[in-house]
């Protein structure tokens, strides 16, 4: 389910000329946050760890 925040962030990204894509793990983490399974702080921690592991 897309939220207002999703719509506005997509539009800002589009207008800035940037392209942001999430991999499957990032999508799952964001989904867990939206479902209130994990906190925002935990999401940031896990996303940071995932990016360090995958992007070097």
Overall description:
The protein has 56 residues and is mostly helical. The chain has a domain at 21-56. It has three helices and no strands. It has helices at 4-16, 24-34, 40-55. The longest helix is centred in the last third of the chain and has 16 residues, at 40-55. It is globular, with a radius of gyration of 12 Å. The mean pLDDT is 88.
Helix and strand succession? HHH
Mean pLDDT: 88
Report how far apart the termini are.
31 Å
Shape: globular
* SS content category: mainly alpha
Work out the oligomeric state of the chains in this entry: single chain
**Strand percentage:** under 5%
Our count of helices gives 3
Taking all Cα atoms into account, the compactness measure Rg is 12 Å
Task: Walk me through the topology.
Elements: H1 4-16, H2 24-34, H3 40-55
List keywords for this structure.
single chain, 56 residues, mainly alpha, 0% strand, globular
Question: Short summary of the structure?
Answer:
This protein has 56 residues and is mainly alpha-helical.
